[in-house]
Amino acid sequence: MKHDRWMAVIGGIGIAAALVLHAAKTDGMKVMTGPQAFTNTASLSPGLARKITAQDLPQPQPPAMLPKIGMYLAAGFGRSAARPENAMPKAPAGFKVDIYVASGLANPRQMRRAPNGDIFMADTGGGTVRIFRGISADGKPQESSLYASLPGAFGINFYPPGPDPQWVYVTKHQHPGAIRL
């Protein structure tokens, strides 16, 4: 009996390992390695993978706080930046990426799709949770409404998971826990 349990555990581990290895397969993909793998999101495209090993990582540096503070301030750390002109994610052939909501949001943080198709958007800067309903012919929401005024709205989840959630939970920026709405 104990032997059978061990065989089941070992078999389960083997199947899990095979699934992980299959998911990590990069056959047919272009793989960037070494220093070239450290790039920004502008180079993201379908079929491109990055392999970064411990040897590729830069050596740790001793802390030097004052130069870093100056660098963060000069770079505008903590402030929203304007989206570069014509900057859009690259999509696989046959797919199109476009802007869903172009205005009316101060600092959108997270989107969640409800089971009925509504899109809930946490707007951290605007202190709101908005609902976008329906999609027009040009790919924009047909309706937009305010769901909740919540300063620092950050994340959204539905509970219980599945096709019929009863509650919406919203987390707030720099606030522990979640608020049930």
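(ticket continues) Second input and output from the same batch:
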Amino acid sequence: MVSVFVGSSSVGQGVETVFAQIAADALEMPMEQIKGVFHGSTDHVSEGFGSYSSRSTVMGGSAVVLAAARLLEAIRAAAAKRLGCAPSDIVIDHGSAVGPGRAAITLGEWPRRHRAESTYASNNEPTATAPMRPM
């Protein structure tokens, strides 16, 4: 399961759904694996911005795509190290990082096995961040 934290705010324009869809697509996983979208609170992100109509989707969505790419890169690197292959050999398939010969690490077990190779939030879950900038 993945949680998405963004600095933009929702005022009824549906950013919760849009950001969940963007995250799921960028992380190559079903949308049902997105646990929640948390927005508009500097309790979770260092900077918060207003909704600014559709700009929240452009700015926040771009940040979600960049953070997802960073997280996938970290997952592929850690899985490759464990499975003895190149990161480019790792594919994400149904919640697992899969290497040559179908050797796999589920994304649920990845944080426990690869703490030293990643950045973690205060709750010891892997995290990736990106600034809110249009792509």
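Agent notes: The CA atoms of residues 91 and 98 lie 5 Å apart. Helices lie at 15-26, 55-83, 110-113. Closing as not reproducible unless the customer responds.
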